[in-house]
Amino acid sequence: MATGRGDELKSIQDETSKGREDIVEKIFGQQPDDEILYDLAELFKVFGDSTRIKILYSMFENELCVNDIAKLLNLSQSSVSHQLRILKSSKLVKFRRDGKSVYYSLDDEHVRAIISMGMEHVEE
Amino acid sequence: MATGRGDELKSIQDETSKGREDIVEKIFGQQPDDEILYDLAELFKVFGDSTRIKILYSMFENELCVNDIAKLLNLSQSSVSHQLRILKSSKLVKFRRDGKSVYYSLDDEHVRAIISMGMEHVEE
DNA sequence: ACAACATATGTTTAAGTGTTCATATGTATA
DNA sequence: TATACATATGAACACTTAAACATATGTTGT
């Protein structure tokens, strides 16, 4: 790429072609493994559905059983249960059984934090 | 639902059917507007693609031009540009033009925070 | 064991979306 | 203005996925 020598342009070169390569290489070394970034995307994908977000938000402060959620959000029991399964497998919610009902709640503070951060961004 | 009177079961009733309704109603009042939760889901949907996450992560500490990103992540220029357009419209990245190149960077701290929170959850 | 209720799961279908290829727009230099 | 380089955009295709319906599993009380 560099035509000829041009030592007097060295600093400028650093900022353009050659410096770019260095930066790209540096960042390449800093990137987490593909697998981790894939998992990260999968996690956000779970948050990226309005039904699931509604379900998660409904549990922001309380635990709720499947039927509660279905009534609250006007959804079919099947739909809620399917979504809860996805939320469960991503460790976004935990649950406990009490008689015939199963009560779901947010799994930990990360979940609350992620939702809150997203909210702040959206409400700007 | 309540068969007969059974005043002595009042507190228990509160914990079951009638109490449930109250809780559901309370939460119903606390839920943000559907529109906001829809936007929130749309936001997370943008994070929910491994290519976009890789792109975002590559800009975690540095600004990068389209070509840098394409080389770094071994993606086509077209693909990167398409994804950057989505990231732009969600206000997750900002950009500046410098000659022929366009340099992109994360838009604000919310973006970094959301990614970090997600990372913590994934790395558990 | 049986009936009634609560939840979970399997399957199908329609809608949404990321990538590729081709092409257009924008910018700098000769 | 003509050429080369950098980025953006349009369109088609393959793939994913949420919702609906039917059905299965699990739990309680009779």
Structure, briefly:
The structure is a homodimer of 124-residue chains. Chain A has 124 residues and is mainly alpha-helical.
Q: Regarding quaternary structure, how should these chains be classified?
A: homodimer
Taking the sheet with the most strands of chain A, its summary is: 3 strands, antiparallel
Strand order of the largest sheet of chain A: 1-3-2
Kindly estimate the percentage of residues of chain A that lie in beta strands according to DSSP: 5-15%
Distance between the termini of chain A: 45 Å
Uncertain runs of chain A: 1-16
Indicate the overall shape of chain A. elongated
CATH class term of the domain at 48-122 in chain A = Mainly Alpha
Write down the CATH topology of the domain at 48-122 in chain A. Arc Repressor Mutant, subunit A
What order do the helices and strands come in, and which of them pair?
The structure is a homodimer of 124-residue chains.
Chain A: H1 10-15, H2 17-30, H3 34-47, H4 50-58, E1 64-65, H5 66-73, H6 77-89, E2 93-98, E3 101-106, H7 109-122
The structure holds a DNA duplex (30 and 30 nucleotides).
Protein described:
The structure is a homodimer of 124-residue chains. Chain A is 63% helix and 11% strand. Chain A has a domain at 48-122: Arc Repressor Mutant, subunit A (Orthogonal Bundle), CATH 1.10.10. The model of chain A is unreliable at 1-16 (pLDDT under 50). The first copy, chain A, is built from seven helices and three strands. By secondary structure, the first copy, chain A, is mainly α. The first copy, chain A, has a three-stranded antiparallel beta sheet with strand order 1-3-2. The relative contact order of chain A is 0.10. In chain A, helix 5 crosses helix 6. Chains A and B meet through helix 2, helix 3, helix 4, strand 1 and helix 5 of A and helix 2, helix 3, helix 4, strand 1 and helix 5 of B.
